[in-house]
Design a protein that fits this description.
Low-confidence stretches: none
Mean pLDDT: 94
Structural class: alpha/beta
Number of strands: 5
Number of helices: 7
Order of helices and strands: EHEHEHHHEHHE
Shape: globular
Helix content: 40-55%
Strand content: 5-15%
Strand order of the largest sheet: 3-2-4-1-5
Length: 193
Amino acid sequence: MSVFLIRHAQSEANVNGRTRSHAAIALSEQGKQQAKQLCEALPPIDHVIISKYQRTYQTAQPILYKYQITAEVDNNLHEFSYLSERKCANTNLDDRRHWVNAYWERMDYEYRDSDDAESFTDFYLRVQLFHEKIKQLAEVYVEKNLVIFTHGQFLQLLLTLKHEPQPLSRELMQNFRLDLIHRPIQNTAIFLF
């Protein structure tokens, strides 16, 4: 049996839609179809873990309905929110592009955009905590199937640290950014832990 790590289906933000908040971003119509297809592609699922963000819940919904199970919400599993929630309200990707570029040009893992944003350090520590949890879960789910729905940036760093454990550094942050640009994780991509 398996532990599946899956990026959520296509969201409105992925197609440059305006969003109210980081957590409230919903799936696009294509994303809803992807979630249904994912449900049919996976083996029977015993447990589902999602982030506190709506798009992971919506991606999990067909599975939850099919197997009559309830998702567990893990508060460490959400996307890297390095831009201020207040500043990003009612914006799209194009609106945020300048802020995104400025954040990554700074390349300072301690920098926080505002009091309602996280630093790369915060993100790294959160991913490490979940990595420890999932190593324990992998021992429990030897006879069952577990699906974890998360986000592209979270999954990128989790997989990096799984395959190449390393301390927090500017180099890690730089390589992480390069991976996001050159090897982004696609919506509904599936990885086995």
